[in-house]
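Record type: monomer structure entry
Structure origin: computed from sequence
Chain ID: A
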Amino acid sequence: MKKKLLYISVNSKPEELSASKTVARELINRFLQKNNNFEVKEVDLYKEHIPRLEYQYFEGRNCIINEEAAKELPEESQKEVQRIRELCDEFISASVYIIAAPMWSLSFPAPLKEYIDCIVQVKKTVLIEKGKKPKGLLDNEYRALVYVESCGGNIPWLLDSVMDRGENYVASIMKMLGIAKVEELKVDNTGTTEDERSNAIAKAMDKIDAILNKIDYKGNSEK
């Protein structure tokens, strides 16, 4: 049985116009060349339905209601609960994740936050007990994630923690869920011209092999 690479893209542009998606595609292709025991599942957050979380879907904070309780909801709400379950289960079933997103307003596009809210579920991806720190449940096997982020300018590393809150948030939440290795692949200085964009993509692609070495799924990875 093949393992799963889950590719999550969050950009309304077609791939040929998106720097983050172009680099992510090359990253996926090179990963598959090294790991032929993986299959790819793609989730385009601008095309797929991502529910907004309503209070009636939950027993408690981020704890999806049980099957019997869900049957008491209106039909449309039942469909939303089922969709949340599907997204969360799909995330759990993967071993490697690639997220491709542009940096918007020091963060990322809103659909990614809505998606993350769907997959952070008590007793499925995280355990929250009174008086204890949240414990991620995705540490039952080695998992790795690469966050491919495009940016029009160049953020100095000294200001990264202040100006790149998107990457910092994604890294924090994914590590909290128990994902062992989280790496960022920046596509900096995409600029305003095609030459600037092409140069930024080329520079990012030069870093792909180093990223793959860091998340090497064959047991040689840095943990």
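Annotation 1: The CA atoms of residues 15 and 53 lie 29 Å apart.
Annotation 2: Residues 219-223 have pLDDT under 50 and may be disordered.
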